Automatic annotation (TrEMBL):
Any Gene Ontology biological process: 'de novo' IMP biosynthetic process
Descriptive protein name: Adenylosuccinate lyase
Catalytic reactions on record: (2S)-2-[5-amino-1-(5-phospho-beta-D-ribosyl)imidazole-4-carboxamido]succinate = 5-amino-1-(5-phospho-beta-D-ribosyl)imidazole-4-carboxamide + fumarate; N(6)-(1,2-dicarboxyethyl)-AMP = fumarate + AMP
EC number: 4.3.2.2
Gene3D superfamilies: Fumarase/aspartase (C-terminal domain), Fumarase/aspartase (Central domain), Fumarase/aspartase (N-terminal domain)
Organism the protein comes from: Pseudacidovorax intermedius
SUPFAM superfamilies linked to this entry: L-aspartase-like (SSF48557)
Pathway: Purine metabolism; IMP biosynthesis via de novo pathway; 5-amino-1-(5-phospho-D-ribosyl)imidazole-4-carboxamide from 5-amino-1-(5-phospho-D-ribosyl)imidazole-4-carboxylate: step 2/2; Purine metabolism; AMP biosynthesis via de novo pathway; AMP from IMP: step 2/2
Amino acid sequence: MSFAPVSALSPLDGRYAGKLAPLRPLMSEQGYMHRRVQVEVAWFIALSDAGFAEFKPLTPGARKYLMGLVSHFSEADALAIKEIEKTTNHDVKAVEYWIKSKFEARPELESAAEFVHFACTSEDINNTSHALQIQAARDQVVLPALDGILATLRKMAGDFAAVPMLSRTHGQTASPTTVGKEIANVAVRLAKAREQIAAVKLMGKMNGAVGNYNAHLAAWPDFDWEAFSRKVVETPAPQGLGLVFQPFSIQIEPHDFMAELFDALARANTILVDFSRDVWGYISLGYFKQRLKAGEIGSSTMPHKVNPIDFENAEGNLGLANALLRHLSEKLPISRWQRDLTDSTVLRNVGVAFGYAVLAYASLATGLGKLELNEAALAEDLDSSWEVLAEPIQTVMRRYGVAGAYEKLKEVTRGQAVTAEALHGLIRSLEIPEAEKERLLAMTPGSYTGKAAELARRVGGGQA
């Protein structure tokens, strides 16, 4: 049975299906089956090379054929496995039977068919498959999307490094900064979060029903099964799986690395929620304009509106992603005794969590691409906020020992409309060196930005 996108239960497979095409082959049920086939084949071939008299090394032709089952795995193959599952009511066993069905008319493989899934518990296949799915999604989709946003932020930090902007702390006017410096702040935070996502080591275990190689040793008591399993797990694909070996587990891999990864991803998403809200506010203040798109409608009744929908969509989808990621990271490391099935059904939603995150990154990228800086609005805002110069004036007064510097400036500026003329009158009355008076008189809200431009350029140049 097939469904049109308009009838999909999830918007990830409906309204937004086209935006998630790179993720779907990796994190869908078909992607899960594909990885299961990969793990079963890698284990089977490795067993043939283990030196057992009962299972001779496979010929080059057989190896090529088996690797082709992995490299050419298709939707039709996935549907065939689903058909077998209708009888087995067991998804991993269905994969095993499908692989064995591919041995027909191949005597070399048919004679060794019982070594498919040999000594394995379902979780030996599942945990490594999930790790491979997550590895591919992280490295091929999530990190490139974050890198795209980072590249844009760094460019904006450099381009707008010297464009002054009024700060607002607690929503009130505060010491000026630059547009580039505010974007640089986000870029630095996101870069650190990105590296933490990339640094998580993805693990896999292949040690049997409760993690002790019980069945393995029953078959070959003198064989070093732990070393063998480590080799299969850690040897790079296609000969192995290219994961980090997990030596201690119950029936399931503990999923601590998943929790670490999902927490790191949620942290990056939180940074982007913060950024999305700030950009939304800057658009509202008029600091940024948005490029118009022909035919696009901002409001069904107000023709003038160009809504910041990309940043709103990003914020909403980041929230959905984080709700799932946090549940995953809290739930998955918990299992009753040697195992229960609560992790199995939850793990099927990792792709959903990643999907909402990737959808949000796409919205952010689109929104950032529409932004145009409105320097006139920025300058106007600064020019109406001369009170922010109370800080440098009172700091210079304190340098030269003028008593009650803070209190004097507070009396003149707090809660009042402050003009350049009023501040200049105060400066001229100060008992400080004339050169300092001239320096303060030359200062404007737009020039009082400290090292903001230098710091922004450092990020824009890729030095931070």
